[in-house]
Amino acid sequence: MQKDPDLSGAEKRHISSVRHSPDSDAQLKTILSENPLYNTSVVIRGAILALFTCDKTQREEFIRISARTDP
Length: 71
Hints:
Strand content: under 5%
Low-confidence stretches: none
């Protein structure tokens, strides 16, 4: 089987790292334990998608709450 030259694969790039507080680390571990198909990068992308679907005011509130608990 040969690669189709007209189709490009997904580009994987590491854009940033995330610092966790003990609470957010525990929350992430709980989420990861819910489904064996979850991994950290998928959960983080899901969180970004969830924030993106919020209206601006709601998104800002979640980000402000997160900033208050920044390690």
